[in-house]
Amino acid sequence: MSSETGTPDPQAHPVNGMDDIVHQRVRLGILTIAHEARRVEFGYLRTQLDLTAGNLSKHMSVLEGAGLVEVEKGYEGRRGRTWITLTPAGHAALTAEIERLKQLISRVETIDTPEDR
Amino acid sequence: MTTEPLPAGGDARRLLSEARGLAHRVRRDQRVTWVALLVLAGATYVGIPIDWAGMEVHCSAQGDSSVCQFARTGALLYWPPALLLAYAAIAFCYVRVARSRGLGARVRPYAITGIALTVLFTVAWVAARLYFPDHPVTFPQWALVFDRLIAPWGTIGVALLVLARLERNVALLLFTVGYLVVALAPIDFGWHMNASVRTVWVPQQVINGTVLLLGGIGFALARRRQR
């Protein structure tokens, strides 16, 4: 995981701190759902994000490789189930990304006033 | 779907809005509010005959009127285990349902709050039972509201506030505020049963249980419509 997932520096432009791993629609979605759900099943993610299993697996590998999520495989009866949990690094990365997005929006709103047009 | 990172300054607003939408959907899918309300309504209804039958009443004539002393032994014996069982059942259902939907549950703080409030009301009732027979007191109105707040029906409402916060469930919050007003005021819709000491609390308990029951049915129907 890059060091970019730490607390954003309020002085720096928010775009500079963006982490390419997290700053991606699907991966941000996975982290958001895993954060909100505490623990989420692969199938739920696939349905909510409207992805194929292969596509979701690729994104999961990126997040798992970066240490942002933990993947636990098991069985319920005969049915295989894969559960995804956010790691503390994943939680920090999600918080930082959301914070940067908010900063970016507020910066754009500050600049984009009628006087500037 | 794209695997490319979004342009950094690009659509931050859309990303945030999507993330909020996903979080909202997860919270909605984790809810089994109707189960909690129906379990609590059931516990309230079952408690009514136990309270009635288990009440110890001693009346004595004083002049033209009679003075009665009472102790709600049935309620004291019934409610602590009933509430503990109810919170355990609710937590179990939440975990099972969330798991079947592919999610984790966020019910633990609610169950812990419910259990803590149950302990609090049990201690308060036992202390009152030991102290007040020898030290009769006339309580002001605010003390009676507090008494109702730490009674089982009040603690049910306080714990539901915690559940509403956990679920960020505005509908449950509004329902709970209404329930607490009915339980604490108390609002009995003019229904009184003053024929004997045993029946004085029956109308309020029936009303509390009915509010919970109707709430449970309402949340179940709303959930069904969402699906």
TrEMBL record, chain A:
Q: Where is the Winged helix DNA-binding domain?
A: 26-105
List, alphabetically, the InterPro entries matched: WH-like_DNA-bd_sf, WH_DNA-bd_dom, WH_DNA-bd_sf
The protein's matches in PANTHER family, at most eight in alphabetical order, are given as:
BSL7504 PROTEIN (PTHR37318)
Q: Please give the name of this protein.
A: Winged helix-turn-helix domain-containing protein
- Gene source species: Paractinoplanes rhizophilus
Automatic annotation (TrEMBL), chain B:
Q: Which UniProt keywords apply?
A: Membrane, Transmembrane, Transmembrane helix
UniProt KW Membrane keyword: yes
Q: Say yes or no: keyword Cytoplasm present.
A: no
**TM annotation in the entry:** 32-55, 75-98, 110-132, 144-163, 170-189, 201-222
Q: Which domain of life is it from?
A: Bacteria
Please report the name of this protein according to its UniProt entry.
Answer: DUF998 domain-containing protein
Question: What is the originating organism of this protein?
Answer: Paractinoplanes rhizophilus
